[in-house]
Description:
The chain is an alpha/beta fold.
Amino acid sequence: MKKKANEQKPTIFTIFGGTGDLAARKLIPALYNLFLDGYMPKEFTIVGLGRTEYNDESYKEVLLDGLNKYSRSGVADPAKWGEFSSNIIYLQSDASKEKTYKDLEQIIADRDEQWAEAATVIHYLSVAPQFFPVISEYISKIKMAGGKEKCRIVIEKPFGRDLETAKELNELLQSLFDESQIYRIDHYLGKETVQNMMAFRFANALFEPIWNRNFIEHVQISVTEDIGIEDRGGYYDGSGALRDMLQNHILQVLCLVAMEPPVSFNADEVRNRRVDVLKAIRRFGPEEVKHNAVRGQYAGGWVGGKEVNGYREEKGVDPNSNTETFCAFKFFIDNWRWQNVPFYVRTGKRMHQKSSVISIQFKDVPHPIFPSHASENWQQNRLIISIQPEMSIRLQVQAKRPGLDMILNPVDMVFDYDGTYPKESPEAYETLLLDAMEGDQTLFMRGDQVEAAWELLMPVIDNWEGRKSLNFPNYPADSWGPEIAEALIAKDGFHWFTMPVKSKSKKK
Ligand SMILES: NC(=O)C1=CN([C@@H]2O[C@H](COP(=O)(O)OP(=O)(O)OC[C@H]3O[C@@H](n4cnc5c(N)ncnc54)[C@H](OP(=O)(O)O)[C@@H]3O)[C@@H](O)[C@H]2O)C=CC1
Ligand SMILES: O=C1O[C@H](COP(=O)(O)O)[C@@H](O)[C@H](O)[C@H]1O
């Protein structure tokens, strides 16, 4: 059970990049919602850091604006916000200057003196990755009354831009901190429905016996977004869909679908099984890259009656950019459980619908007994785990349609979060920040996991970066991506699964 306020140790959060987008949209709302739900420690301080000129009060006003816009709990209650924000201070500072860390050391020392017990200090690096090394080096030198092991460091993505840079960053972090102090965040692992994959698979006796190549025909993981790159052109153009979404979020979801049962819910046991999957995914040679990995880039078009830019017209993007805004892959996992079961994954921006969904298609019945007219709507059994926006698990089975004739129809057996649980689920960052406070690394990436994911993708990165003459853009805004992605799966006789948009329930 998660500890409530009076059981939590005194904690100091330092947010490097405290004036940035992530802090305003996700981190502060997450900490505030934890506070509302009684999970923040009785004694805590949040130190926002940035170069922008604010004092404590003007900084809090900016945070309150963000909170009112983005928090799942809506507009803040003035009294609650007053209570929460009395624990926030702003440190105007440059992350590359030693003085910043002297000031931080003083703040920590002051708290340690006031509070009954020396604080756990969580440094959240919500800054561009070029700052990760300098900040890590400096914070590792901060003197703390409670000892250095009371410090934890949370590293945002991207963790490296290839295998070499990820290794360099791991080496540096591991030379400064113990692995148990390093929290590499992947917010998909904090999503309620993603966590539920483990409960669904390993808390039910029903599914594990059929969760293998004998019963499953293929798996799809599809993470589509209707938004473009918004104002993140500068970052995104040097990244692309593979680095932004596939290397981290999608591969981690794939690991949860494909992993072997861990012997316990201990962080390292779970992470060992996840990394096993990454190691077992079949590597691509140059030929396999061509046949199993495709990419695309969006053109302009119309979305909801509004004209939108093509990727190359977006702010901060090179007008001749070959950066992919879409990618799709076919993977195989070389182990006993998954031999020859294809895993299709795709992700893209400016697609028709925002939807993150896992579809597990089971093999067909061994012998059809129903006449063909009864089976016109035949659909092999399928398990659909919808991560967002709908949060549900649907088991599609065949059933008899009511009537005098034997006509079969696919129907869904549904577990829907909205209908089952009246209380809203916590946001991913709430779960992950609380885990970081409690020292639970289960939902964070270990160094070897990040490296294994990069290692798997390096042949694709090398191949793609070597081929510059691309037929981009190759899909219009508000579409399902490029035709080559359809071909990738259609040549095996399948189609991408798309989640039907949930219709509003009719009130009687
Ligand atoms: N925004 C998002 O939705 C997501 C972001 N991320 C990751 O989170 C991190 C932050 O992203 P985001 O908030 O969007 O970025 P922003 O560009 O909005 O913010 C960057 C932050 O870095 C600070 N900064 C820049 N230079 C310095 C410096 N020399 N010294 C001190 N502070 C500095 C800025 O503060 P100031 O200008 O005041 O100095 C600002 O607070 C990145 O690693 C990103 O990849 C990951 C997933 C989603
Ligand atoms: O990490 C990222 O994730 C978001 C998508 O996250 P979601 O929780 O809204 O599904 C993506 O838009 C962004 O490009 C990427 O950096």
